[in-house]
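re: ur question from earlier - yeah i can do the single chain one, its not a big deal. heres the input i used so u can compare w yours
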Amino acid sequence: MGTLYLSTFALCWFFFSMITYGSAVPSGLFLPPILVGSSIGFLWENMRVALLNIQQTEISSLPIIVGAACMISGQTRLTYSVIVLVLEASGSFDLAVPMFLAVWCSNTVGSLITTSLFQREIRGKQMPFLSGHCPPETSRIEACQIMSKTLVTVQTIADMRSIKKALSSTHNAFPVLNTHGNFVGLIPKSIINTLANLKVFYETKRISLASRKQFSS
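and the output i got, formated as tokens:
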């Protein structure tokens, strides 16, 4: 394929993947980086052939396959799973070592430049998520300085008294405990507020015996 054709193909897929990201259009997550990465790898192979005067029969598929894997890893920060996926899809298991090195470099460079796509999704949905590194601004703050001593929890089957207590607090999310007092999840205040406004109540006839004892106490 020609250089102009491959460049136009890669730029079009990269542009449309950017403008459709975050929309309701099911554009996919792996197909655009696979096509863009393969096109960039093909461009590299064309440049190598032109500079070294290589015969067309000696063209290698290594840059094409590795380019697809590197683009996926740079976008999602996945490593081992990307290598296994691309190796199984291409059937080129002899490229495992160069692909591992290329994916590691792509992951490292991408992490130095920006955050991953999945981290942006979590941040966009405002989900409570702790990163692996503490920001320098809060590195010397102890947990006791920001944590509340009186913990506000919500039961899996809660009454309106506990819901009112949770909504009146200053917390943005609450631990969810089952009937045995074990932690089973986390629920944001916005979801509790929405359920209360919509009056999504649980039928009392379907409440288990353990929950009834809890309410009666």
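Residues 3-124 form one domain. not sure if urs matches, ping me
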